[in-house]
Amino acid sequence: MIRVPRKLRLLLFLILLLMVTGCPDDETALKIDMNQRETVDIKDDGNAVTYAYLPQYSHTVAYDRHHLLIEYLKKQTGLAIKQVFPDTFNEHIRMVGQGKIDISFCNPYVYVILAHRYGEKAFAQVVESSGQKRFRGQIICRTDHPTIKTLMDCKGKRVIAVDLTSAGGYLYPMGHFYQHGIRMDDFAEISFSPGPGGKQEKVVLAVYAGQYDVGLIREGTLNVVADKIDLSQIRILAYSNWYPGWIYSARPDLNPEILYQIKEALIRMDYDNPDHRQILDKADFTGIIPTDDTEMASVRELLDTLGINLDR
Amino acid sequence: MMKLGFRGKVFLGIIVIVLINSLFITLPVRRIVQDALSLEYQNRGLSIAMNLASRSQEPILSTDLLLLKDLIDNSIRSSGDIAYAFILDETDRILSHSFKDSFPTALKTANRASLQSPTRIQLLNTGKEYIYDFAALVEIGGQKLGCVRIGLSKTQIDRTIHDLLMTILLLSGCSVAVAGAIGAGFANQVTYRIKCLHKASEEVLTGNLDIQTSFRKTRGCWSITQCRNTECPAFGNQLTRCWYIEGTKCAHCKEGGYANKIIGCRECDVYRRLSGDEIQELAESFDAMSKSLRIHIRKLRESRKAIEISEEKYRRIFDGSMDMVFVVDSDGRFLDMNQAGMDLMGYDAKSDFMNQMSFSQLFSNPEDYEAVKNDLNTKYFVKDREILIRTRLGDDRVSLLSCTCQVDSIGGAIKGCEGIIKDITERRNMEQQLLQADKLASLGQLSAGVAHEINNPLGLILGYTQLLLREEPPGTQPYEDLKTIEKNTRNCKTIVEALLNFARKTETKKVTVDINAAIGQIVTVLQRQFEVAGIHLTTSLATNIPLIKGDTEKLKQVFMNLIMNARQSIEGKGDIHVFTEYDAVTNQVVINVEDTGSGIPEHIRHKIFDPFFTTKPTGQGTGLGLSVSYGIVKEHGGNISVQSELEKGSVFSVTIPVLLSEASSEIIPVKKPALTF
Predict the structure, then answer these.
(1) Of A26, B384, B439, B524, which is the most buried if we count CB atoms within 10 A?
(2) Inter-chain touch A36–B106, beta carbons under 8 Å
């Protein structure tokens, strides 16, 4: 057996130690050729049926709520259906007018505008998560607001609404103010939530942050922001009257067969069916029922009351 | 090659230690930092990718290519090390990218994120550089919307790590340099003090103990304790610490030197505050040691001088002693013996008896040895014990033995003994002679008195007898009777004269005497007579015999008596040899009468000079021959002695001094220098 001198053993030990402690591990690198190139091509399938959700919330919420429904419709109808995301209410209205949206899911106020301007046809409406076929707006302020105790205290305050074309987030609460003798001129300021998307949530956040004294939102919005703010800091001052729920409508020149397939598929959805319930829960309603343009009379009446011009 | 010195070793050692320390710290730290940086880099890349993915949700959904491009460009601008960024849709189509021209096809599939693995990192090698590719899935509600990919150049992190390593190495180098400088300073300080110590030790080796190696101290016990006692030897002493100084005045200081003090001093606040520098303590203890050594050496020299004086004195006593002084070990072997002892025992050199002769061999009489041995074992000493010792030549000497045992103080065992043997043979002989002389003198006086008292009546008896004889005719009975009376009276008168001669009461006529001539006359008369009887009478007369003053007739009587005694001791044939010699040392004439007769038994040898002592049958001798001869010799200031051996013969020796004063028979003593003390 070879006898290694003591000093040499020590030296070897030190070298080994340094090798173990001092040398980094080798990482495996994937070799790629950067010279082979391609051009970008994202050309759309022009035959797809476009589906748009009025951007009352952000695109992600819109996508999150409706992508299962889109998948369901694709599966049920065999059609190529694509969800598109207009950034604002106005863009939604414009895209409907441009024919870029075949199936529109919007509030009754926007629908009345679309029907008035482009002949949009309502064919179904949702049953709200509360089980109601109707929905309403809410007037909110901070719980600790020093001067706002009652609805009347909103006079002279700064108000923020969702959009000029929002039903729950503007039209319905304004009707409620009107019924209580409060006019737009009584407020110090009326502002609208900045776009695009997420407009309902932005109203709640603006009131929560104290940027505005009073906020106008549709019922259900607070649930959406429950994980973002402390809801105990928000007080609901009043609810508006009930109005028809959100409307599914189609552009007037959509192939009736396609419309029929889509309408039937939507109406077939049963909350008691577990598969459908998952889709409906995700979309934040419990069912879809048939409807038509005559159901929107109360909305049109409110618009008249408030003197809103549908052509502008 | 010169051996590396302490300074070099310290210097080198510190540098090696710091270097090894730096290596052992630097390399793992480099590894840790590199890993941490890589992880941080990867986390940052992931964070950028995930952030971009999060912000890409809306524009992907709305297919807002401009916004996607803005997001990518903003990301690229936000960090200089992002090599590229691009966004894929759910079908892996490129929605937007950061490349100026077309998109590298291979890059699209180089890294993939999925719902199961929403983020993924892949190191890519483009041939020019290494790139970390980060993929982050864009998804909403568990649905894949697309994928964001960004690439971070690894060169940047490598450069950062390299810079870090360089910084660490630079710092390590600085540490080594600083440690080396500090080590050099420290080593210089230490080696300077060690050199001082070394120089001091060399001084000590050369015999110079008056050294000072410790530095002068600025603080001392007096400054710490606020002491003002100027009588204390430690006060103001800047060279030696107080615990090395004897006789300090502190109340808690113990008496005595360092060995006694130090235990107590270790508890002292002064010691605790002033001690701790090992080299300084070494120097101080070295100084204290050299000082102590100096004192001890001085004492040792004084002691050695005293011992030398003492040894010389005792050696002189030992060697000069006229008596035998000896040393034996526990086994009785002689270890040493003075010259007188060697002379007494007949040895010429110490090697003749050292480790060869035993104590027991000293004794002629085993009983003496046993008695001495018994006394030594019980009393550990013997005092003036009269013993008979046997010399190397076999002579027995009467001696007085005194000796003392060396006893081990611990075990009580006898380690040996020293003693003195005094030869008293001569004294004993002298005592016997004196005793004899006294006895004979007493007898002489008695005999002289008796003879004096008898001599006159005998004279009257003889006178009247002779008067009566004149009146009686010869042949008659009365005449014969008177003749018988006259004859016996004359015999009585002869005896009385002999007694008077013995008692020196007879008149001595001292003239110049030729001893050889006197002997010759006697031998001539007796020689023929002896020849007839078969006795061969010879003489050897020394020619250098000086004349002496004496009574020739009386001396002749002495020689006659001795020769006749010799004749009578020989039964049958024999030899009688008379020889004279002159002892120039004692200035004496020695006359020896040697015979081959029957010898004199030991038990009567001391009686032969007694008056009326005779071994002859009654009527054949008066027993006055030797006693009369003794008296005559003594009258001449001489001496008579005998040496005899049974059945071999005897030698009678008569010594007569040559120089005799006219008035006294005493030998004139030779004057010697008197002692002056």
Answers:
(1) B439
(2) yes
Higher pLDDT, A275 or B447: A275
B30–chain A Cβ distance below 8 A for any pair:
yes
Q: For B310-330, give the DSSP string.
A: HHHHHHHHHHH-SSEEEEEET
Q: Do A60 and B30 touch (CB under 8 A)?
A: no
The whole-angstrom distance between A153's CA and the closest CA on chain B is: 38
Task: For tokens 């001599």, name the residue.
Answer: B455
Per CATH, A49-133+244-306 and A137-241 having the same topology is answered yes
Nearest to B124 among A32, A60, A83 (CB): A32
Largest CA distance in chain A: 108
User: Which of B93, B110, B127 minimises the CB distance to A42?
Assistant: B93
| CATH fold of the domain at A137-241 | D-Maltodextrin-Binding Protein; domain 2 (3.40.190)
Domain ranges of chain A: 49-133+244-306, 137-241
Phi, psi (rounded to 5 degrees) for B265: -65, -30
Tokens matching residue B354: 């050292």
With bands split at pLDDT 50, 70 and 90, how would you rate the model's confidence at B661? very low
In terms of residues, how long is chain A?
312
| A61-90 mean pLDDT | 90
Q: Are B133 and B110 in contact (CB under 8 A)?
A: yes
Chain A residue nearest residue B36, CA to CA: A24
B27 contacts in A (CB within 8 Å)? Answer: 18, 21-22
Using alpha carbons, select from A296, A175, A162, A289 the residue that is nearest to residue A241. A175
- Please, what is the angle between helix A108-118 and helix A89-97, to 10°? 30
B206 close to A (CB below 8 A): no
- Whether A21 shows a pLDDT value over 60: the answer reads no
Q: Which of B16, B17, B27, B89 to mutate to test the interface with A (most CBs of A within 10 A)?
A: B27
- So what CATH class is A49-133+244-306? alpha beta
- pTM for this structure? 0.48
Pairing assessment for the beta strands B103-104 and A37-38 based on DSSP bridges: antiparallel
pLDDT digits (tens, 9 = 90+) for A168-218: 899 999 999 999 999 989 999 999 988 665 678 899 999 999 999 999 998
Parallel/antiparallel/unpaired status of strands B396-407 and B414-423? antiparallel
- The model's confidence at residue A290, banded by pLDDT at 50, 70 and 90, is very high
What are B577's two structure tokens?
């040899």
List CB contacts (< 8 A) between B91 and chain A: none
pLDDT score of B623 more than 90: no
Instruction: Look at residue A69 and tell me whether its pLDDT is greater than 90.
Output: yes
What is the per-residue pLDDT across A232-256, written as a single tens digit (0 to 9) for each? 999 999 999 998 889 999 999 999 9
Res. B665 pLDDT band, cuts 50 70 90: very low
Closest by CA position to B144, among listed B176, B111, B170, B112: B112
Q: What is the mean pLDDT of chain B?
A: 83
Distance CA B484, CA B469 (A): 11
Q: Specify the DSSP element, H or E, that contains B502.
A: helix B477-502
Measured at the CA of B527, the angle between CA B522 and CA B528, to 5 degrees, comes to 130
Q: Kindly report, residue by residue over B53-65, the tens digit of the pLDDT.
A: 988 888 888 888 8
Parallel, antiparallel, or unpaired for β A81-84 and A49-53? parallel
What number is the ipTM of this complex?
0.72
User: Looking at the complex, does the CB of residue B24 fall below 8 Å from at least one CB of chain A?
Assistant: yes
Q: Which residue of B has its CA nearest to A31?
A: B125
What is the rounded distance in angstroms from the CA atom of residue B504 to the CA atom of residue B632?
7
- Closest by Cβ to A37, choosing from B27, B102, B111: B102
Confidence tier at B677 by pLDDT (50, 70, 90): very low
The residue-averaged pLDDT of B620-639 equals 81
Q: What is the mean pLDDT of residues B166-171?
A: 83
The CA distance from A57 to the nearest CA of chain B, in Å, is 11
